[in-house]
Amino acid sequence: MGMYAALDVSQEETAVCVVDQDGVILAEAKVPTCPDAIADWLSERSEGLDRVGMETGPLAVWLWNTLTARGLPIVCLDACHANGVLKMMPNKTDRHDARGLAQIVRTGWFKAVRIKSHGAYVTRAMLTARDALVSMRVRLENEIRGLLKTFGMMFGKRVGGFRRRAEEIITGELAVAPELVPIVEALMQARHDILARIAALDSRIRAIARRHATVRLLMTAPGVGAITALAVVAAFDDASRFRRSSSAGAWLGLTPRRYESGEISRNGRVSKRGDRFTRKCLFEAANAIFCRSLGGPRLKNWARAIAERTGPRKAKVALARKLAVILHAMWRSGTPYKENAIA
User: Fold this and answer.
1) What do you get for the CA distance between the two ends of the chain, in Å?
2) Which residues contact 258 (CB under 8 A, 6 or more apart)?
3) CA 105, CA 46: separation in Å to the nearest integer?
4) Dmax over Cα atoms in the chain, in whole Å?
5) Which residues have a Cβ under 8 Å from the Cβ of 259 and sit 6 or more positions away?
6) Sign for the pseudo-dihedral over CA of 66, 68, 72, 76
7) pLDDT-based confidence at residue 81 (cuts at 50, 70, 90)
């Protein structure tokens, strides 16, 4: 007899539900969110499980890896897809969610999410940490500019960059308000420390890029640097996950939504599904190609032709999608970027 289980994971406890092939509930309980506790509970109450499902979430990668190592047939369900079923429940509780997920797992009406390799998650963590530090630097600089503007001091732009201009203000213009000096100096010291951490991560990223053959291959494409190439490699993880390179753009949320019902048929904005950081990196690469002379003119001319019809922003999004497709095709074939091969 087929049996199916589902886990509704939370930080402290996990609701577990086991059903048979007809959807009859065989067992359910709440256990600590620990792979050993979950595996022991399932092994004691059910033998020969066909499938165990859980939604995507912060703990999904850890639980999937540890439960898979214990021999459980665990699958990860797309939380957005599963939510369409769970929201039909009149009362939302962990117990009801586990029951609903168990029925989804039993029927097979779910979208499985691929769990990537350990190295891909490590690379992604490094890139997102750097992105967070860059955001902190920008926020500190804006805070300094706004603080000085309140007292009539315009930061502006000077030769030598942000640090040199800040030093000029501290030693000169802030003489009329000396009580602000320690405040600005504290913010500048925080900015200095963040810049040092960013530089350390940049050095590590460059070192990884030099050793990684796939990253070096992707960097032959115009506009693609070490960060963008690493982001693409970490997002895709395996070039064979897509049968067609054209699927890479849709997976990253760079293709329009489609709505069709009866006589209504229209395209919407891009879906923005998938990896947000990689999508941002590809858009920045597309912007660099569009605004500067990088590599051959073919990609730029292709985007310019779209811009004449729909505007530059949509052209850059289209170029970002095309770049994702090109990078995946390069990875699959193992060949560097070739200007004449662009369709």
Assistant:
1) 53
2) 266, 267, 268
3) 16
4) 83
5) 265, 266, 267, 268
6) positive
7) confident
Query: With bands split at pLDDT 50, 70 and 90, how would you rate the model's confidence at 222?
Result: very high
C-alpha–C-alpha distance, residues 98 and 61, integer Å: 18
Model pLDDT, residue 247: 92
Query: 29: which DSSP letter?
Result: E
- Band of the pLDDT at 295, cuts 50, 70, 90? confident
- The CATH topology of domain 3-107 is Nucleotidyltransferase; domain 5 (3.30.420)
Task: Give mean pLDDT, residues 74-81.
Answer: 89
CA dist 13 to 34, 70, 229, Å?
8, 20, 39
Give dist(CA 111, CA 78) in Å, integer: 6
Residue intervals in the chain for CATH 3.30.420.40: 3-107
d(CA 167, CA 188): 9
pTM of the model: 0.86
CA atoms within 13 A on the CB side of 119: 7
pLDDT for residue 343 is more than 60? no
Judged against a pLDDT cut of 70, whether residue 32 lies above it is answered with yes
The Cα–Cα gap between 277 and 127 comes to: 9
Q: From CA 11, how far away is CA 58, in angstroms rounded? A: 9
Judged against a pLDDT cut of 80, whether residue 251 lies above it is answered with yes
What 3-state class would DSSP assign to 119? helix
pLDDT band at 159 (very low <50, low <70, confident <90, very high): low
- Residue 31 near residue 41, CB atoms below 8 Å: yes
Query: For 122-132, how does the pLDDT look when each residue is reduced to its tens digit (9 = 90+)?
Result: 999 999 999 99
Half-sphere exposure (Cβ direction) of 291: Cα atoms closer than 13 Å: 9
pLDDT tens track for 87-121: 888 888 989 999 999 999 999 888 888 899 999 99
Q: Which run of H or of E encompasses 324?
A: helix 312-333
Burial status of residue 149 (CB atoms within 10 A of its CB: 0-12, 13-18, 19 or more): exposed
Helix runs in 172-275, H state only: 181-211, 213-218, 226-236, 246-251
